[in-house]
Amino acid sequence: MINASTFPPNAAHKEPEEPLYPPQQNQKKENPKGMGLVLSWWYGLTSPAQPDESAPFEERELFRRGRTGSQIAIVLFLLLIISYPAAFAGSNSLLITILTIDILLLMLALTLNRLKRVGIAGIIVVLVFTASPTMNILTTPGGVNTSALPVFGFLVIPLMCAASFLAPWWVFVVAAGNCLFTIFVLTSMPSQGELQQVLKVAFPGIVTPILLSQMIVSIVAFLWVRGARQALQRADRAEEIARLESLEIKRQEEQLAVGRQIEEGIQQIIATMGMVVTRNDFSIRVPLSQENILWRVSNAVNNLLSRLQGFRRSQEELKRTHAVAAAVAQRIREGQPIALESWTGTAFDPVIIEYNRQLKSISTPSSPRSQSVMNNGRYYSDSLKD
Length: 386
Fold this sequence. Notes:
Elements: H1 24-29, H2 35-46, H3 57-89, H4 95-114, H5 118-138, H6 156-165, H7 170-188, H8 193-279, H9 295-334, H10 349-360, H11 368-385
Helix pairs in contact: 2-4, 3-4, 3-6, 4-5, 5-6, 5-7, 6-7, 6-8, 7-8, 9-11
């Protein structure tokens, strides 16, 4: 005989006490206390690590399924533990072995869940809690009886596990398997006692509630998981839209800043060139910093102004050289010393110094050196006249 009290009837619908998505900022600011501390310890052992806010949607969806599975696992452990007294008191001696294997496999699944192998962990949990009631029914001595009917109700637990760990559509696969198993047991397996007579006259009345419970729970679980997934997708899209809007605003601000730099740079270049033309001063430069986008243009303009300034200096030096050459030639023709109070800034400065030195070294007009200098001076003067 199977004791129907092996599993509490409402335990599968126990609401988790911890929010599904605990805010990351609050966790950093506030230290968990009491039950929160216990749940934090439990999540550290069985749940994937919480991703960053900038993590992609797939990673956050994986965390959501892993965290939900970790919460459901608390209820599953309680169900297995409180089923031991009923297993010892029941007629099925294999139930104790089944429960022990279930606990070990559940621990393995939670270890994989912690390692972010959420899909594999979900398959293990679904198989475990599908096999437990089915093995309980199949191994009942003497065949199925009326006390085994409540065990079919526990087949909704794999539906909740599939909805928590796996993709939403898996819940319909598990529900279809449970329905086929129910029909197989009630139609093909041997039955005994009152159940055998009831199945002959009221088979639809027995099987319909079991199948309806599978359908209703699977649909509700599917809608619940799909709603949570869609909410996460909407939040992800909202964050992506906000990020793109921020990038667009930043790009527009950068374009405006570049436009202002171009406008200011053009105005400064035009103003500088106007001052150069007005003052005829090539020493003026375009005052643009390297941060300005037109800095290279201003640098090229400044280089051009620098070359024009050097060319102008060369022109002025050439004019001074012509003037000094004319004055030196006139002094040489007259045979007079050249007064050099300051440098002329031309190539004639060393010539003037040497000429004055030669004149001073002449002691008398009759000396051979003096005569040679005078003759050279006359010859140079005559050559200039020619």
